[in-house]
Amino acid sequence: MEKINIEEIFAQNVFTPAVMEKYLPKDAYDEVMRVMEHGGELSRETANVVADCMKNWAVEKGATHYTHWFQPLTGFTAEKHDSFITHPDANGKMMMEFSGKELIKGESDGSSFPSGGLRATFEARGYTAWDITSPAFVREDATGAILCIPTAFCSYKGEALDKKTPLLRSTQAINEQALRILRLFGNTDAKKVSPCVGAEQEYFLVDRKKYLKRYDLLYSGRTLFGANAPKGQEMSDHYYGSIRERIGSFMRDVNIELWKLGVTAKTQHNEVAPAQHELAPIYETANVAVDHNQLVMETMRKVAERHGLACLLHEKPFAGINGSGKHNNWSLTTDTGVNMLDPGDTPNANIQFLLVLACIIKAVDTHADLLRQSASDVGNDLRLGADEAPPAIVSIFLGEQLDDVVRQLVETGEAKHLINNEVLATGVDTLPDLLIDPTDRNRTSPFAFTGNKFEFRMVGSADSIGDPNVILNTIVAESFCEAADILEKADNFDIACHDLIKKYLAHHQRIIFNGNGYSPEWVKEAARRGLPNLPTMLDAIETLTTEKAIKLFEKFGIYTEAELNSRKEVLYETYSKTLNIEANCMVEMASKQIIPAGFLYMKDLAGAVKLANNVGVSDRAARNILTEVTELLENLEDALEALKKALGEAQAIKGNKEKAFAYRDQVKVCMENLRKPADRLESITDKSIWPFPTYEDLLFEV
Ligand code: ADP
Ligand code: MG
Of these four, 205, 472, 564, 627, which has the most CB atoms within 10 Å of its CB? Predict the structure, then answer.
């Protein structure tokens, strides 16, 4: 096997600062570094120099085209390739060119991307703008080598039409507010605070030939029919199990591709469900982590195809076994290397940590609805609240020790001792040194403190991690801002800070829950505490435009009210379109595959009954099965007609919101009713007749 030298290949296709230093003149390089660190715009001359060097570097890598690589509201990435060629000169010679203008700004007909009404068709132009904080890269595959330039995507008037623009805005907001908190504690060296994110990505791998035989997987990414296999995940033999060669060889190629693109693929293992796996990179700044997570998903899909596999990123590809999520690990790190979510080991650091913690608790309690919304997508509705996934109710897990500190602070205003730890309060009169045990985990919590970061576990596996990080950055920026407003004016900072921590914890303690998030008691308890329970995606959409939300987003310049309204429209539309595809696909499979298979089996059984009668043996077995098959076919036919009717009615509705609810409350119910008799029929029908691969074939014979 070919040897891999990670040091040599890592980031070999990335226009990193080191590459820039080599290719750019010193003053241009300095200007780029300055803008990367502190924002602002490159001068036109520098942009031209950078573009030319970037092109030369990319051409050396074999690139023929460049693309502005952006993230429209579809949740996927988009690209349009332009080659570097220009008009040939009089001698027919062609000079390759790439200008600063082309690097910095692109114009595209954006009318086919979702805009939620923000862009009228007469103003269909969309603009892409270079995001200098996420490095350009050359992607190599059968298409050739393409220079990809990460960009934001906006309308003519600058309204955000993508996932990146609000993320960049929120990164700026949290930077400003977090710096105010640091300054209060005497930190004057940090110049910048960046949200850092590590996204663990779960996925399924199935055999591609089988995948292609299932229209549901092909069109909707999940199985819409399918009886459970005799075995599921009950033996826990897949989790961390040894990785079989076919899968391992896929993982190896994914890692190589990702390393070349500068993605720090770090951990890989088998997950709980059969055929389910996970990849985790090392955390990095949120903006780059969002881009890299898109590259992870894209690379997995592509490499799977090369290996005769299909990578399923859907949140719930199979009923009855675990679905897939994405754990969004989030922290705040200064340019001097301090993690604000690290308890630290000096009394001063501890108090800063407790203030940061109190602010996060306040933010999550105040905006639990928005956080829940940020993790919702159509597929995740099938996962959240089911047995294996976090519930749709947002709560915070702190771990026993920290929970006890919070309780002491709320009850007595002082935290004097730590449980499970021999180190007691030293040198401080009000707060003990904290030694957080990072192994203290509660897997049922949607938002868990894990030592020096929060792990948001609700995010769906197929979704961009852009939205959840926009919300985290923004809501924490708000509570930092409020705390800083109070503390900057305080006469006695120590007392004011102590009082504020106590107040925030006392007011927002209800969001803390250390028990079993999967239990039905928690749903009741959460209701008693007044925590929002938004079970489905549609229940959560309106949270984007409550008075509280609009105030929050406008205050920090994240979204205008018009942008929020447009996003809502897109979400409602996406919901209806997704359900429409799924329902159509079910109609197709039931009409053309499942019902005909049932008739074939009926014919066999009728033949068996006749034969039994002819030869004079009992026809009981054949007759019983024939009766059940016939009844199931009748049920199937009824359910199919009901689905078609509900689908027709939903399709006729005009308003986006009303239509989406019709899909959820009528169409989806009919889909479930159609699935039941079909799955039962599958489980009693001769396997050689069944028209597509079953769960057994897909999950256990990869
Ligand atoms: P698990 O949650 O499965 O036990 P790990 O604790 O190894 O996994 O971490 C999971 C992810 O958290 C990785 O992507 C890792 O890089 C990321 N991570 C670790 N520390 C931080 C941090 N301070 N901020 C953000 N992400 C982090
Ligand atoms: Mg995790």
Answer: 472
How close is the Cα of 142 to the center of ligand 1, in Å? 33
> In this model, does residue 123 exceed pLDDT 70?
no
Among 290, 293, 453, say which to mutate for ligand 1: greatest number of ligand atoms within 8 Å of CB. Answer: 453
Q: How many residues does the chain have?
A: 702
116-130, 141-155, 576-590 — which is least confidently predicted? 116-130
Least reliable range by pLDDT among 84-93, 132-141, 545-554: 84-93
617-632 pLDDT per residue, tens: 999 999 999 999 999 9
CA distance 458 to 447: 8
Q: Which atom of ligand 1 is nearest to the CA of 199?
A: 14
pLDDT average, residue stretch 671-693: 97
d(CA 149, CA 137): 7
Topology, domain 574-700:
Four Helix Bundle (Hemerythrin (Met), subunit A) (1.20.120)
Beta bridge partners of 199: 328
| Cα-to-chain-centroid distance, residue 456 | 10
The reported pLDDT for the residue numbered 295 is 98
Hey, which of 196, 197, 200 would you mutate to test ligand 1's pocket, going by the most ligand atoms within 8 Å of its Cβ? 200
* Fold of the domain spanning 6-162: Ubiquitin-like (UB roll) (3.10.20)
CB atoms within 10 A of CB 212: 13
CA separation (Å) from 23 to 41, 51, 275, 460, 485? Answer: 20, 11, 45, 40, 45
Smallest-distance ligand from the CA of 450: 1
**pTM reported for the whole predicted model:** 0.95
Q: Using the mean position of ligand 1's atoms as its centre, give its distance from the Cα of residue 279 in Å.
A: 12
Q: Do residues 296 and 268 touch, judged by C-beta distance below 8 A?
A: no
- Tell whether the model's pLDDT for residue 345 goes beyond 90: no
Confirm or reject: Cβ of 442 under 6 Å from ligand 1: no
Q: What is the DSSP code (8-state) at residue 442?
A: -
Tell whether ligand 1 has an atom less than 6 A from the beta carbon of residue 467: no
Listed by start position, the domains of the chain span 6-162, 171-422+431-559, 574-700
d(CA 173, CA 479): 11
On the question of a common fold for 6-162 and 171-422+431-559, the answer reads no
Whether 280 is in the pocket of ligand 1, judged by its Cβ within 6 Å, is yes
Cα of 266 vs centre of ligand 2, distance in Å, is 13
In Å, the largest CA–CA distance within the chain is 103
**Residue 38: predicted pLDDT:** 84
Q: Which of 26-35, 112-121, 411-420 has the highest mean pLDDT?
A: 26-35
Average pLDDT, integer, range 145-151? 96
For 668-677, what is the mean pLDDT?
98
In the 8-state DSSP scheme, what is residue 667? I
196 within ligand 1 shell (Cβ under 6 A):
yes
Fold of the 171-422+431-559 domain: Creatine Kinase; Chain A, domain 2 (3.30.590)
Residue 536 beta carbon below 6 angstroms from any ligand 1 atom? no
Asked if 471 contacts 360 with a C-beta cutoff of 8 angstroms, the reply is: no
Contacts of 509 (CB under 8 A, 6+ apart): 361, 406, 410
Residue pair 220/316 in contact (Cβ under 8 Å)? The answer is no
The residue that leads in pLDDT, 498 or 701, is 498
Q: Which ligand is nearest to the CA of 278?
A: 1
Q: Kindly tell me if the per-residue pLDDT of 425 is higher than 70.
A: no
